[in-house]
Predict the 3D structure of the following.
Amino acid sequence: MPIRQLSETMINQIAAGEVIERPASVVKELVENALDAGASRVEIVTAGGGLNLIRVTDDGSGIPEQELALAVARHCTSKLSDDIHDIRSLGFRGEALPSIGSVARLSIRSRTAFDSAAEIGIDGGRVSAVKPAAANRGTTIEVRDLFFATPARLKFMKGERAESSATSDVVKRIAIAFPAVRFTLTGSDRSTLELPATSDTPEGRLARVAQVMGKDFPDNAIAIDAMRDGVHLAGHVSIPSYTRANALQQYAYVNGRPVRDKLIAGAIRGAFADVLPRDRHAVTVLFLSLDPSTVDVNVHPAKADVRFRDPGLVRGLIVGAIREALAGAGIRAATTGAAGMMAAFRPGAAPYSHPGPAGGHRSYEAAHRASAGFDLSRSGQRPLDMTYGEPGPRFNGFAETEQAAFNTGQLASADARAGMAEPAEALLGMVLGAARAQVHENYIVAQTRDSLVIVDQHAAHERLVYEALKNALHSRAVPSQMLLLPEIVDLPEEDAERLAMHSETLAKFGLGLERFGPGAVAVRETPSMLGETNVQQLVRDLADELADNDTVETLKERLDKIAATMACHGSVRSGRLLKAEEMNALLRQMEATPGSGTCNHGRPTYIELKLADIERLFGRR
């Protein structure tokens, strides 16, 4: 087949295949255009998941009538200066509108503050003439029958609900970066997402995050604010005990642009590596601000990925800032833990608390008689040795069965020695309070001025031992063991060079290596803690990580894992009785140790239940 010039329509359709993957992609491009135009209000309406209709209305600066024809032409933009590296807007290629118009029916109605409104349309790549229209200041863009011109693409679309969910996620991601803009999203099922404008301040940004991620996040978040070599990192991350089953609630922004970057995602995983379970993920909202010339946002057609000039700097800043913030935040329990605890206590309405006809409560006996199939003798909620049939319950102490169980020690184990004396007022003011009892020989019950705290003694001490081992491990060079014969590892030349460049850092972790001719390194020492290890695999893993992230975290993580195993076996085991002084000492150590809210495996070490929550359980509130 001879070489030929593609038609303008086919060129636009090819571009649409790169930029417009689904209705959510159209919404992203149009909303970004609205924000670049300085809009303070953006309204999105969809029908059929966006395949039938997408309408985006804004109150931005608008498009002059004489520029409408250029707006729908390829590679025409008002957002790019002469320097391709100085990109300060969300859009800059000038491909979105002609690409959308080549696969759908597109109409643009716009008005500036000084001109009358005008309209232009594109139907499957055919551009209509500009004509007068009626409109307020700003721009309204309608996209109908998406992919009608390329019906094969429709076969790859998901259901209406899935497409609507993807669109909602796109709007939320963009909205977090622009708290001063009001966003509304309305679907054909009459569901509405409304995000009122806040302020472009730290408090306003956190309020917008709460609108998107839920009101629980601000109560379980830690502020991040760090600067290194011209790169500024701000935002919030969740405390270790507040997690999600996936990484969908990890939001990252580079100069205000929402991105899904593997370097940033890897840095977040690294920062939370030893405080989260393997299958759980932190909740984060991070904003990176840096010189536009040091980041390339033009590496992906949809601008979802970025490339940093110094990826090691960015990764180190994120990991260091998050770990420092976690260490400085002290010990905190997730507020959701109390909610789960209350739900466990209250599986359903209590049978002794039935609303009466006048809004009061019937007696326990009346509720019992009204409950079909309810056997009082088998109820786990009845008081001990209560007799019925008279006007009210009568207490006669322990029944014979309970008394026998008490005498033989078959009741739930509890050691109340810590509660014999009144705790010092100073202890009640501490974060974890004063120890009052030990239950089931593993759980410490403590009291603060306004809450009840339950501590898992094994999990808590495991974290304390682990942190002490880590501090000892990384405060000095790791002891190494000399190999009887050096291990020669063959590698690609570039990997061998990277390892040689980081040989001094690796030596601090007990791994001694040097170049051994072209494309090989000789390993002469390995960390003593590793014992017998697969040197070949270890070196190749380090080479892969250096290629990806320019760090040697793999070796550090292996050493930390060994320290975690040692901590697990060396900590206070379940089943050990503790004295009051020992329990209080453990609580004070937890308060002074960063990350002690979770154990080495990511499980919570304690749960706090506020007095107000306890009162609600008993119907006092």
